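#onboarding

Welcome to the new folks! Below is a worked example of what a typical request in this channel looks like: someone posts a single protein sequence, and someone else replies with the predicted structure as tokens. Don't worry about understanding the tokens yet, we'll cover that in week two.

Example request:
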Amino acid sequence: MSSTARRCGVLGDPVAHSLSPTLHRAGYAALGLDWVYDAHRVPAGGLAAFVDGLDAEWRGLSVTMPLKLEAHARADRLTDRARRSGVVNTLVLDGDVLGDNTDLPGAVAALEERMPSAPTTALVLGGGATATSVGLALAETGVRRIAVAVRDPARAAAAATAVRAHPGAPEVTVLRLADLVDGAAVPVRPDVVVSTIPAGAQEPGLVERVADVPCLFDVLYDPWPTPLARAATGAVVSGLDLLVHQAALQFALFTGRDAPIAAMRAAGERALRERDPARGAP
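Example response:
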């Protein structure tokens, strides 16, 4: 590497499937930056030791599961959105360690790019870290009533508390996913359904219940289309949309340069087609 080069990377377990190296490297190439970005498998409990072992060449880290809470704990400083969500997916290394959550503004950008009109009600499937970030993003866009459907309502407590604490004070109701599949009434008539659950958990009964919503936001990008995306009759926001927008924000934080979003998105789409030539459009 040249004297001006820097290192960045994505940490997680598993992480070999991550598109982040493809996106960030495409951004570096488009801007002529001699930077390196690689994937690093770091198991649960290993983030702090990994970060503490880095030298001055390192500039930034993207953090995926199961390390987002560990990243929150390791950061020396937190942005407001990281503090509000309790989740960190970005570590900026600049003397100290700044923790940020680019999933939140990335989700806002993805929704605004695809949705025909601003939503006011939402149904979120799943209650983990991604659901927390997207729930806060929904509140940012003006959503005031949110239902969260999970297998175990107790596991959604942290997400519900974080979303309720948003300055917009949205009303958050938690229900069992099984009850939703069985036909139980949803507390809201959603303008948008956000799915943070695996494709294998998208059962036919669930797919049928939400197929006709005005907008589906499925945070997955591989496999694609998911059962929910395949059945959707309205606008569809994909996990690739989210990944590109949050990666662009990370790119700017790490490099200090505006991200070449079109080049990054094109690289991501190309990589996914190479993995699965039969895949549908994201």
